[in-house]
């Protein structure tokens, strides 16, 4: 047994390049439950991060009593991370769950029933549609629902109501991943695969604290590092993360300067001839534009702007330029910072310059932040057209018209879909009067929270919130709908590397809670949405019907699901799309042949100017016709719009800790995880701590132009001049509202977004700090990860190591079976 | 030779557009994309002006027989609300269109003169003006339905 709070990544199982990652099955059962007590193990995949690990749910007496990793799954080879082990089941089996609908009466939410709640929703919705039309409606969806639910929701919004105002919280986590792939390759679709970790010689992690955000993926990296021919690691992160500790080169850039660094790396490839001219000639376009844009960015210029060593820039570029196989991963450090899309496209550019794509060990993983974000993007619950279709392409719109058998004019395609921040702006201005929020918590996760709270409180909007718990956001609702959780419903979802998993229903939802799927179908039925032939728009009876319809929607598109059935996903492992007649076992990696989905008739987007977000447009795109070539997209570096000054001298950045997901609705209800990271903190470097005369545990106020928070200090390995705050902590376990004591990181963040991906810039703001009081104890920050104290800190205030104790013991079984192999033939050809 | 008249028109128009973009940026601070991107576009106009300066020098003063009503006024104030935003963006669009078509005239003249230096300046700048127009047009297309149908 291993304490998996203290030992986050568990026991090492070293392996060498081109070997299969050994299996290790991780298991946790509730206290007092023995393996022989488990009545059933129900197949699923984990939803506590975006990694998508195969998981079995232990059921006893109709309740979830634990989990184990699925040994045969290609994603995790049996392993689970601390969040999966402790929060997946405890996060939903909780007495706080919503069990009946709530409606607002005289300003107060009171318990009600489904008939009353749905009637209120439908009455308001119908009246608004009749009086003001579809643009009065907005939907803010999630990265947590199942594929079938997103597809239902997308059809309701696009073909039932006809509103372009639909987006997911994926806008906050993964919009830039999608945008960068659309710009470079013509369509969303992950080029690489997790198996590339087994096969690479070097790994670049760009703004990706993989050790905390995808722990099981990091186990795979750690096992390679522990093996005989470890990959060379390069880390771009302003904090001294676990990734940085393992890195040969750590580039702790100033927040907001990613693109300058990327220009420097790209320039080094050109200068040193570390490029594949034949690949560039045959498979790409616009290389001269790229060369001209990066030209000024010498290592010295990068050092000046980014605050890193020029020689480290050279060393990093040399590793990229000379390693045989390079894998890159990208996450929020790039996606939530300034010039997000341009910086993320620069990663694609590095790989295109060397032709390091579509080959073993040569992948790009533009990561997702959430377990089902990929499906949100595929289905178009983020506003895009379903099946990676192009809203500017009339033929693509017609395909949906034919699939759904609706009038062509109802599908909104006259302008870009309305992104999340703009939806909230329309609510603020009173022109969206019906807002439906499902499975997300903007009252904690969106930027500039005082403004978001004001928007959720405007009188003109009728707010529907669908969730497991009475979240900070749900408290503003007019109607709250209790949702069935993971394990209480059946459906599929897809992870970062395109692996589709089936998640079966293991137990009944509590009380009257219903699946989001059933709720959307009920709404559509009550609203009377129909097809042109008069039949119901959604005539499905269960999720498998929706999956069948979805398969038709994806036929011939990059995300082709036509070869997948629920039965194919039962037993064994998940399957990677595209899976169709041509690829019956799925596809390990895309673009093996160097042909990209950039054909004008096929592409998902005609692209944008990365500096301003201005669209290229169909005429210009067709004029240069990329015709299957990838496109080098870039933009000149532009400093962040809010940089430190005399009043606000620090750069502020936000992020996560390994023990929590999002706003802690699940992880905060796991005693093991909550005990490991029970409350907010802020991080400051040792030098800055000394200058401001603050020590470990002292209480400080951190303030931006928009708000402040108060929290104890952890003196950590963060770079000088920067302040970090974890974004998990809201107010649901503190009385529901701030009540004068602010601790949410997003009180301070700026309302601004990337011009192309529209992803909010949550990782760059200017702040100042003030010491409020001497500390009486160490801060609650974990000691096991990036928030670990630096050795010189503490000054007599004992920081205890983060451990889980008896409750956090997990069973690890090393190599019970041979490792799973990716099944596609291509891997062995 | 009337080319100096048009170089002067372009130089002035870029300045007018820059000032108007900054005006709109300030006046619509609650629309963060408009606020920040208008600043970026204004900076591009500044660079265009600087790029034109040597040409004004080389081709000389326009003289005092320039056409009537050559120059247009920029935005002196901004409007408020969704319709106000739309109208302000439309005004910017008109100004940017003038800049755009003037670049096109200059380009024609540069080609007629086989003036490589002037042509290279046009090539560096006119693409950015085209992008400015596309950005303005898309932002208006996004805002128009909401502003025209629903805004109070």
Automatic annotation (TrEMBL), chain A:
Needed co-factor(s): [4Fe-4S] cluster; Mo-bis(molybdopterin guanine dinucleotide)
Ranges annotated as biased composition (Low complexity): 777-793
Region (Disordered): 777-806
Keywords tagged on the record: 4Fe-4S, Iron, Iron-sulfur, Metal-binding, Molybdenum, Nitrate assimilation, Oxidoreductase
4Fe-4S Mo/W bis-MGD-type domain mapped to chain residues: 39-95
Top-level taxon of origin: Bacteria
Cited InterPro entries: Asp_de-COase-like_dom_sf, CT_Nitrate-R-NapA-like, MoPterin_dinucl-bd_dom, Mopterin_OxRdtase, Mopterin_OxRdtase_4Fe-4S_dom, Mopterin_OxRdtase_prok_CS, Prok_molybdopt-oxidoreductase
GO molecular function: 4 iron, 4 sulfur cluster binding; metal ion binding; molybdopterin cofactor binding; oxidoreductase activity
GO biological process terms held by the UniProt record: nitrate assimilation
PANTHER family tied to this protein: NADH-QUINONE OXIDOREDUCTASE SUBUNIT G, RESPIRATORY NITRATE REDUCTASE
Similarity field: Belongs to the prokaryotic molybdopterin-containing oxidoreductase family. NasA/NapA/NarB subfamily.
The protein's name: Anaerobic selenocysteine-containing dehydrogenase
Species this chain originates from: Salinibacterium xinjiangense
TrEMBL record, chain B:
Organism: Salinibacterium xinjiangense
Biological classification of the source: Bacteria, Bacillati, Actinomycetota, Actinomycetes, Micrococcales
The protein's name in its UniProt record: Ferritin-like metal-binding protein YciE
Superkingdom of origin: Bacteria
């Amino acid at each position: 047994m291993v304490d998996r709070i203290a030992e986050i990544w568990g026991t090492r199982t070293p392996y060498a390049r081109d070997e299969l990652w050994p299996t290790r099955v991780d298991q946790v059962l509730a206290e007092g439950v023995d393996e022989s007590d488990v009545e059933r193990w129900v197949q699923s995949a984990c939803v506590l991060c975006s990694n998508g690990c195969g998981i079995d749910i232990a059921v006893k007496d109709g309740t979830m009593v634990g989990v184990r990793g699925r040994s045969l799954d290609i994603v995790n080879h049996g392993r689970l991370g601390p969040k999966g082990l402790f929060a997946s089941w405890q996060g939903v089996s909780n007495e706080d769950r919503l069990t009946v609908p709530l409606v607002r009466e005289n300003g107060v939410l009171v318990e009600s029933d489904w008939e009353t709640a749905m009637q209120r929703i439908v009455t308001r919705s119908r009246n608004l549609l009749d009086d003001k039309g579809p643009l009065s409606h907005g939907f803010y969806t999630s990265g947590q629902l199942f594929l079938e639910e997103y597809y239902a929701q997308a059809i309701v919004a696009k073909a039932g109501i006809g509103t372009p105002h639909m987006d997911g919280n994926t806008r906050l986590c993964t919009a830039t991943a999608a945008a960068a792939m659309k710009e470079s390759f013509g369509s969303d679709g992950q080029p690489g695969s997790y198996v590339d970790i087994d096969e690479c010689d070097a790994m670049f992690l760009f703004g990706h604290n993989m050790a905390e955000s995808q722990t099981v993926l990091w186990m795979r990296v750690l096992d390679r590092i522990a093996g005989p021919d470890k990959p060379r690691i390069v880390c771009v992160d302003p904090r001294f993360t676990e990734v940085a500790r393992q890195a040969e080169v750590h580039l702790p850039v100033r927040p907001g300067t990613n693109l300058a660094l990327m220009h420097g790396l790209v320039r080094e490839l050109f200068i040193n001839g570390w490029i594949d001219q034949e690949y560039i000639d045959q498979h790409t376009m616009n290389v001269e534009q790229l060369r001209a844009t990066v030209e000024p960015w010498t290592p010295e210029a990068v050092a000046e702007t980014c605050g890193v060593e020029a020689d480290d820039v050279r060393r990093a570029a040399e590793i990229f330029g000379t390693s045989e196989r390079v894998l890159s991963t990208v996450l929020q450090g790039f996606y939530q910072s300034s010039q997000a899309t341009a910086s993320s496209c620069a990663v694609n550019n590095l790989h295109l310059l060397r032709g390091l794509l579509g080959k073993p060990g040569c992948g790009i993983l533009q990561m997702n932040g959430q377990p089902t974000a990929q499906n949100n993007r595929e289905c178009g619950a983020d506003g895009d057209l379903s099946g990676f279709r192009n809203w500017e392409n009339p033929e693509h719109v017609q395909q949906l018209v034919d699939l759904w058998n609706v009038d062509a004019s109802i599908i909104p395609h006259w302008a870009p879909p309305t992104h999340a921040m703009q939806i909230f702006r329309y609510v603020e201005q009173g022109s969206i009067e019906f807002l439906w929020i499902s499975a997300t918590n903007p009252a904690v996760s969106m930027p500039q929270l005082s403004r978001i709270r004001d928007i959720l409180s405007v009188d003109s909007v009728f707010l529907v919130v669908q969730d497991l718990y009475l979240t900070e956001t749900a408290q503003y609702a007019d109607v709250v709908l209790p949702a069935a959780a993971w394990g209480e419903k059946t459906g599929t979802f897809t992870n970062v590397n395109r692996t589709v998993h089936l998640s079966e229903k293991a137990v009944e939802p509590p009380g009257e809670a219903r699946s989001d799927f059933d709720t959307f179908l009920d709404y559509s039925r009550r609203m009377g949405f129909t097809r042109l032939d008069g039949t119901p728009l959604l005539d499905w009876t269960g999720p498998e019907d929706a999956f069948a319809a979805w398969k038709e929607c994806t036929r011939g598109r990059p995300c082709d699901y036509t070869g997948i059935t629920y039965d194919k996903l039962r037993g064994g492992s998940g399957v990677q799309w595209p899976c169709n007649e041509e690829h019956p076992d799925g596809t390990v990696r895309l673009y093996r042949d160097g042909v990209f989905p950039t054909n004008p008739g096929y592409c998902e987007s005609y692209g944008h100017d990365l500096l301003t977000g201005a669209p290229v447009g169909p005429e210009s795109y067709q004029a240069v016709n990329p015709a299957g070539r990838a496109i080098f997209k870039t933009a000149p570096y532009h400093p962040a719009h809010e940089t430190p000054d005399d009043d606000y001298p620090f750069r502020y950045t936000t992020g996560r800790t390994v023990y929590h997901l999002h706003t802690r609705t699940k992880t905060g209800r796991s005693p093991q995880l909550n005990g490991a990271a029970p409350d907010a903190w802020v991080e400051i470097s040792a030098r800055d701590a000394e200058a401001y005369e603050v020590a470990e545990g002292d209480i400080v106020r951190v303030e931006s132009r928009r708000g402040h928070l108060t929290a104890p200090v952890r003196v950590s390995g963060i770079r000088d001049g920067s302040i970090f705050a974890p974004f998990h902590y809201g107010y649901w376990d503190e009385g529901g509202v701030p009540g004068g004591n602010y601790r949410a990181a997003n009180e301070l963040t700026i309302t601004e977004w990337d011009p192309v991906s529209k992803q909010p810039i949550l990782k760059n703001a200017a702040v100042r700090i003030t010491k409020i009081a001497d500390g009486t104890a160490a801060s609650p920050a974990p000691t096991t990860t990036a928030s670990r104290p630096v050795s010189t800190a503490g000054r007599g205030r004992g920081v205890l190591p983060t451990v889980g104790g008896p409750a956090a013991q997990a069973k690890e079984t090393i190599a019970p079976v041979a490792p799973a192999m990716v099944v596609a033939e291509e891997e062995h050809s | 030779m009337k080319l100096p008249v048009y170089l002067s028109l372009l130089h002035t128009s870029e300045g007018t557009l820059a000032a108007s973009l900054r005006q709109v940026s300030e006046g619509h601070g609650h629309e963060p994309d408009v606020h920040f991107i208008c600043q970026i576009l204004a900076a591009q106009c500044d660079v265009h002006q600087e790029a034109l300066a040597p040409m004004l020098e080389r081709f000389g003063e326009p003289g005092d027989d320039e056409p009537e009503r050559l120059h247009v006024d920029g935005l002196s104030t901004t409007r408020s609300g969704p319709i106000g935003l739309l109208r302000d963006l439309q005004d910017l669009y008109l100004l940017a269109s003038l800049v755009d078509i003037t670049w096109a005239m200059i380009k024609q003249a540069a080609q007629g003169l086989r003036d490589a230096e002037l042509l290279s300046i046009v090539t560096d700048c006119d693409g950015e003006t085209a992008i400015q127009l596309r950005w303005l047009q898309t932002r208006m297309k996004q805002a128009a339905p909401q502003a025209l149908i629903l805004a109070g």
